[in-house]
Amino acid sequence: MVKRPTMQDIARRAGVTKAAVSFALNGRPGVSEPTRRRILAIADELGWQPSSAARALSDGRAGSFGLVIDRPARTLGLEPFFMQLISGIQAELVRHTTPLLLTMAEDQAAEIALYRDWWARRLVDGVFVVDLQLGDARVPVLEELGMPAVVLGAPLGTGSLPAVWSDEAAAVATVVSHLRQLGHRRIARVAGPARLRHTWVRTTAFERATRGAGMAGRTVETDYSGERGAAATAELLRDAAPATRPTAILYDNDVMALSGLTAARGLGLAVPADLSIVAWDDSALCELVDPPLTALSRDIRGYGAHAARRLREAAGGAPVGDLQDAAPSLTLRRSTGPAPDTLGG
């Protein structure tokens, strides 16, 4: 194992004291300019990097941020949204060589325990909070700790924590309006877990939009997995008569939409002749199937980058407010079409 270079190694090579090395590396007076340049050159040659623990002791900063995700590994590994989100966060953090401490937790209690541990040991300067829940227990704990945090989601139930969000209610209304213009009067939605705040926002908007348009709407809760997405699709379509089954389904992520497409075909239905499908979060998956899926598109990488910039500002002591990102837009493809000409359709 290669030994990590230390300040003592630099001092020995340069023929100076360890204190002189500290002065040079931290840009403090106490050494001549030629000596400072020689020490910096030796440090670069040895590949020296400051210790995060030492930095935390000296200025109270860890130089890193944290992200804890409370979702089953089997669903997270297939979820394009989080891969793009993390990519956007990391792309912004790497500009300042700031590492991201990423881990998973079994539940909110475990996540809160991690926050307390990280903050007590000064392992992070702040955290990204995702998947805000109704009555979320993390918010008051983070406020109590005084730990900088940015919520990715609507500024509802976020307390004093700043939020980076997009108008998901407007996105739902856009989908409902599009389907109504195509003649659909019975539509369904395959949703994520009801405990999540953004699921509640979407469900409330879906009920309001369908009711306002005089349409029949139904929401089925799932866990975002392809298996549950397929099961929910079968539940909506299998036993319903053509005159009562939904003619269009909106899915809360693209993984479930792809599974729903397969499930519908397994029941002998053609897309979009018998059933229109709309996906949320337009990853490359939506364009790789036949027919390609109509989807709500947004710049998820940019969303993550905005949150990273916000968290850096908050960790630096700047006052940070909510930031509204661009609302998802509807990208039309061949999975949506006119409602089938059936009794009551």
TrEMBL record:
<dbReference type="Pfam" id="PF13377">
    <property type="entry name" value="Peripla_BP_3"/>
</dbReference>
<feature type="region of interest" description="Disordered">
    <location>
        <begin position="316"/>
        <end position="345"/>
    </location>
</feature>
<protein>
    <submittedName>
        <fullName>LacI family DNA-binding transcriptional regulator</fullName>
    </submittedName>
</protein>
<dbReference type="GO" id="GO:0003677">
    <property type="term" value="F:DNA binding"/>
</dbReference>
<dbReference type="InterPro" id="IPR000843">
    <property type="entry name" value="HTH_LacI"/>
</dbReference>
<keyword id="KW-0804">Transcription</keyword>
<dbReference type="InterPro" id="IPR010982">
    <property type="entry name" value="Lambda_DNA-bd_dom_sf"/>
</dbReference>
<dbReference type="Pfam" id="PF00356">
    <property type="entry name" value="LacI"/>
</dbReference>
<keyword id="KW-0238">DNA-binding</keyword>
<dbReference type="InterPro" id="IPR028082">
    <property type="entry name" value="Peripla_BP_I"/>
</dbReference>
<dbReference type="InterPro" id="IPR046335">
    <property type="entry name" value="LacI/GalR-like_sensor"/>
</dbReference>
<feature type="domain" description="HTH lacI-type">
    <location>
        <begin position="5"/>
        <end position="59"/>
    </location>
</feature>
<keyword id="KW-0805">Transcription regulation</keyword>
